[in-house]
């Protein structure tokens, strides 16, 4: 899983769209990636407000909001009856004589009329609900114990959310749906194959098992479905539905497969607080938001370090050392599981997983040397790198976090934005001693300096300034390139090709003889890339070969490598995406088909990657091995597109083993099997579906 290439630029675009759509960062222009997710933000706030009202038992407020902004939803008498019945129960739950009179009035004027034409069983349910007058809410053995259960609130709230999302087209941002889909496939694959997930602790916290109830159509469920069986089976297996559930979902979406798919994805519950934390960490790492701890967003991370900082004493030399945050610890634990001892630094540049920034202490009671820090701060390269980061920091956004403490309904449709807030972080720090808080910020500031160095190097590499990158890194850490020879080779490749492009062949050959040649002599895996690099000298009159160099890919690999040297692990979101994309590939290899939905969710863009510098498969494998999972394969987000064919070229299709599509669908339908299992069964019986079914039921 660690070697799966990922287009991090595509992920950047998805994450930025998510952060803008959810107003997590200060940004006035609307998101460019998904205008739908931007325009639906206020509708999502409305849905959240209605959901919160129902879950708290305030049915009247929810009905008022629906009448004001989505009156068509109340035309469904089935839904209206359920809400009126819940209102009746909530009035009785209050227990006062006045509320009891209000409940009687509700039953007479609202609930009984709805029960007459909601659905055939509604009137019997109405009479059954009247038993709540004489049975106490705490009586678990009463015939109306289920009616009294507060779980009914959450069921109705979830059902309303499902209906409103489809009715208002208020779908979640693409990133949220993509993450749900990839994680659900990842979990299913690991369960099906009996393998352990390296990111199980994260995925279990992020994607919850519970789902909102499905929104069902009003038509009869017994009529023949007018849908293609291929679409029914694709939807059923994509979001883990029964065949009837897929048919109902398609009918509710009026036959639109992709709308039905989105409806079902949004039913999956995700822990928003965990998601925001992962996105925030990723945005800081990638330089999307400012990591300055004096900003409100960063104080969320500062709060998590209070326990460590509490053990520090004023004046301790440890205050100048870097602090590993909770997220770093959880990420490093996942790395330790798959680490193996390597002998060749070209095949494993990051085999030493314990490499940390030189001044980091092994324990809080142990003093650490600050010599290296002083050397860095005194070095000219360090100052230049910080100045680069300072300039770019002005372009970054400020993370303000999610604030749901205001009244959504009052601000939803007035055009005003959310109030700035830190989601409770201020409350966490409010009782903190001022001196302790300054100590925390001081230590995190040293971490911010490291981020600025790393991002500065990344920016230089992405701009093709290879010579400058090598100079700066050698000044920062002379031992870096001996531990990472492939990165040095790639940077010198960039420098060589730039010189060839401008026609300076003598300087290019000097770079090749001084750097590329010795590296290839020491590491045989680099010999073939060297030959292809030199071959560009013969094509100097044609289109420059360095035009399409994967500079962003190299910059990402460099960022990960330098970050680990500084004791900063890659974000946890990177691990989730890499692992889930790997299982996505493997799952659809088992299914022997391509994913119909990967274009809709940008999964194909996340998988799109440029080759190594000169398209050499050997050098690609070397790069992938050396980065230990940090994909060097990245393309520009401007080149991303929603393409139909995103399947891997090495996937085996059903036609390769002589299976008819109708036979596959018949076996899938009758035996409720995944596509891959149905194909394997058909292969055993010469593609005859009837024989397979007879053998199973014999």
Q: How are the SSEs ordered, and which strands pair?
A:
Elements: H1 8-21, H2 35-39, H3 41-55, H4 59-69, H5 77-94, H6 97-117, H7 122-129, H8 145-148, H9 151-168, H10 174-193, H11 200-206, E1 207-211, H12 229-238, H13 243-252, H14 257-267, E2 268-270, H15 272-285, H16 299-304, H17 306-310, H18 326-338, H19 371-378, H20 380-393, H21 408-412, H22 425-430, H23 434-462, H24 466-476, H25 480-483, H26 485-501, H27 505-522, H28 527-535, H29 551-565, H30 572-591, H31 603-607, H32 617-627, H33 661-671, H34 675-684, H35 689-697
Antiparallel strand pairs: 1-2
Helix pairs in contact: 3-4, 3-9, 5-6, 5-9, 6-7, 9-14, 10-30, 12-13, 13-14, 20-23, 20-24, 23-29, 24-26, 26-27, 26-29, 27-28, 30-34, 33-34, 33-35
InterPro entries: CTLH/CRA (IPR024964), CTLH_C (IPR006595), Ubq-SigPath_Reg (IPR050618)
Domain CTLH: 47-99, 450-507
Organism: Salvia divinorum
């Amino acid at each position: 899983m660690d070697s799966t290439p990922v287009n991090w630029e595509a992920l950047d675009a998805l994450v930025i769209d998510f952060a803008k759509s959810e107003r997590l960062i200060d940004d006035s222009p609307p998101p460019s990636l998904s205008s739908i997710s931007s325009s639906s933000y206020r509708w999502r706030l409305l849905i959240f407000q209605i959901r919160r009202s129902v879950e708290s038992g305030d049915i009247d407020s929810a009905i008022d909001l629906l009448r004001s902004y989505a009156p068509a939803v109340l035309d469904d008498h089935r839904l209206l009856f359920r809400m009126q019945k819940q209102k009746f129960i909530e009035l009785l739950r209050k227990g006062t004589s006045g509320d009891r009179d209000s409940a009687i009035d509700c039953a007479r004027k609202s609930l009984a009329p709805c029960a007459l034409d909601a659905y055939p069983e509604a009137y019997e349910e109405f009479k059954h609900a009247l038993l709540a007058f004489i049975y106490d809410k705490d009586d678990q053995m009463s015939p109306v114990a289920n009616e009294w259960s507060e779980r009914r609130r959450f069921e109705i709230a979830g059902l309303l959310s499902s209906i409103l999302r489809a009715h208002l087209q208020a779908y979640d941002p693409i990133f949220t749906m993509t993450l749900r889909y990839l994680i659900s496939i990842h979990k299913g694959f690991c369960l099906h194959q009996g393998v352990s997930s390296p990111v199980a602790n994260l995925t279990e916290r992020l994607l919850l098992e519970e789902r909102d109830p499905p929104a069902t159509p009003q038509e009869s469920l017994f009529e023949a479905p007018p849908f293609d069986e291929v679409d029914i089976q694709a939807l059923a297996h994509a979001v883990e539905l029964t065949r009837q559930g897929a048919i109902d979902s398609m009918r509710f979406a009026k036959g639109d497969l992709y709308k039905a798919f989105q409806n079902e994805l949004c039913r999956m519950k995700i822990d928003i607080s965990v998601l925001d934390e992962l996105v925030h960490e990723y945005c800081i790492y990638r330089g999307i938001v400012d990591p300055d701890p004096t900003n409100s967003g960063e104080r969320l991370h500062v709060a998590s370090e209070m326990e460590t900082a509490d053990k520090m004493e004023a004046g301790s030399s440890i205050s100048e050392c870097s602090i590993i945050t909770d997220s770093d610890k959880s990420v490093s634990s996942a790395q330790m599981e798959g680490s193996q001892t390597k002998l060749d630094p070209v095949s494993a540049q990051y085999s030493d997983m314990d490499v940390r920034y030189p001044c980091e202490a092994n324990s809080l009671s142990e003093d650490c040397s600050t010599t290296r820090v002083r050397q860095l701060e005194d070095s000219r390269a360090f100052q230049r790198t910080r100045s680069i980061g300072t300039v770019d920091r002005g372009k970054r956004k400020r993370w303000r976090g999610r604030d749901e403490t205001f009244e959504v309904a009052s601000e939803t449709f007035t055009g005003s934005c959310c109030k700035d807030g830190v989601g409770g972080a201020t409350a966490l720090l409010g009782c903190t001693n001022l001196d302790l808080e300054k100590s925390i910020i001081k230590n995190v500031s040293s971490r911010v300096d490291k981020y600025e160095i790393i991002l500065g190097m990344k920016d230089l590499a992405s701009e093709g300034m290879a010579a400058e990158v090598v100079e700066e890194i050698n000044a920062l850490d002379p031992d870096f390139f001996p531990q990472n020879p492939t990165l040095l080779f790639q940077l010198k490749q960039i420098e060589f090709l730039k010189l060839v492009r401008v026609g300076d062949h003598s300087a290019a050959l000097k770079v090749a003889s001084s750097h590329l040649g010795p590296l290839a002599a020491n590491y045989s895996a680099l010999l073939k890339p060297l030959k292809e690099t030199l071959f560009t000298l013969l094509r100097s009159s044609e289109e420059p070969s360095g035009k399409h160099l994967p500079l962003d890919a190299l910059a990402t690999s460099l960022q990960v490598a330098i970050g680990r040297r500084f004791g900063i692990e890659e974000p946890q979101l990177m691990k989730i995406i890499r692992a889930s994309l790997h299982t996505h590939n493997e799952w659809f290899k088992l299914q022997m088909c391509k994913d119909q939905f990967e274009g809709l969710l940008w999964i194909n863009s996340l998988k799109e990657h440029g080759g190594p510098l000169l398209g050499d498969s050997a050098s690609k494998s070397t790069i992938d091995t050396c980065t230990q999972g940090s994909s060097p394969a990245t393309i520009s987000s401007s080149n991303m597109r929603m393409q139909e064919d995103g399947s891997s070229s090495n996937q085996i299709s059903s036609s390769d083993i002589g299976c008819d599509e109708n036979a596959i669908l018949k076996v899938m339908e009758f035996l409720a099997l995944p596509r891959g299992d149905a194909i394997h069964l058909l292969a055993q019986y010469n593609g005859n579906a009837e024989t397979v079914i007879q053998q199973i039921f014999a």
